[in-house]
Amino acid sequence: MDKANRSGWIDVALLAPVIIWGANYSVVKATLAQMRPLAFDALRMTLGSLVALGLTWLVERDVSLPRGDWNQVMALGLIGNFFYQLLFIQGIARTTATNSSLLLASVPIWVAVGGTLTRSEKLHGWNWAGVLLSFAGIVLLIAGGGHAVTVNSTTLLGDVLVGLGALCWATYTLYSLSLLQRCSPLKATTWIMLSSTPLLILAGVPDLRAQNWQAITPQGWLGLLYSSVFAIGLSYVIWSMGIQRVGSARTSLYAFLQPLVSVTVAWLFLGEHMQPRQMIGAVGILMGVALGRYRPKTQ
Fold first, then answer.
1. Where are the alpha helices (DSSP H) in the chain?
2. Is pTM beyond 0.90 here?
3. Spacing of C-alpha 25 from chain mean position
4. How far, in Å, CA of 69 to CA of 145, rounded?
5. Over the stretch 215-266, which tens digit does the pLDDT of each residue have?
């Protein structure tokens, strides 16, 4: 398969985590109404890690990792799993879905800035225009639907936690590139998740002990299963494949599509109306992602 075909294939594949993560905000919010945050996080990361380990064994029949990669794997596990997951779960429980969406949508900006400063990514003027256009489109998409961004004493702590989580995910996306150039995405993702899951379990012990397990409905267990298998186990692997094939900055652009997926689902299935400003924002997001993904033919 030539480079152009590989790039086209990963473009399609990266839509899967976008759709899964776009719905995951609502799934997590609903499940946290029945389950304590750290108990939920400990369980979903354990299940997600086991799913990734099973996929690695089925596909590669070899789960070993070179000794020289362990330091980077441990660091990525701390940044992209342990700290990010704690900040995300604790933050989303303390702020609004609108604030969370906008803060996490800033990830491609941080990746683009970080990649330029560290010279790990070579972005052109069109790419920068795409990043900024997509972010502006998200602001229009959210504000155009009447979902105001609220910053007050009630949401401030949650906003700070989600914002720090966005920085962690941006750092993870950038720092994983060198590992993924040496190791398969499936194996690297599996060990990154496995390295940090014990820490998340330890952090979740108080919530696991205090959890009222009888209060969890079948819908709550389905929410945990969805978030574990699809939002963690499957999506993390595909995200790593994208970083390996097209780079950190261009992969991170797909995060801009998540709010668009959420609004589109609400429009199609929940009877919500898409306002003119939201339509303009949606067009801006799509154009921005296209510009951000642009590579000159000489690359």
1. 3-13, 15-32, 37-60, 70-76, 84-92, 97-104, 107-118, 125-143, 156-180, 185-210, 218-226, 235-246, 248-252, 257-269, 276-292
2. no
3. 11
4. 46
5. 999 999 999 999 999 999 999 889 898 888 888 877 888 877 777 776 676 6
Residue 26: Cβ-neighbour burial (10 angstroms; 0-12, 13-18, 19+): middle
Which of residues 97 and 210 earns the better pLDDT score?
Answer: 210
Taken as a whole, the chain contains a residue count of: 299
Report which DSSP code applies to 2.
-
Q: How far apart are CA 281 and CA 278, in angstroms?
A: 5
Structure tokens at 58: 């089925």
Go through 134-152 and write b for each residue having 16 or more CB atoms within 10 A of its CB, e for each that does not.
Answer: bbebbbbbbbbbebeeeee
pLDDT at 201: 95
Torsion of CA 195, 198, 199, 203, to 10 degrees: 160
CA distances, 231 to each of 114, 117, 290 (Å): 25, 30, 24
* Tokens found for residue 183: 């190791």
Closest CA to 63 of 190, 235, 178: 190
Helix (H, G, I), strand (E, B) or coil at 154: coil
Separation CA 49–CA 197 (nearest Å): 8
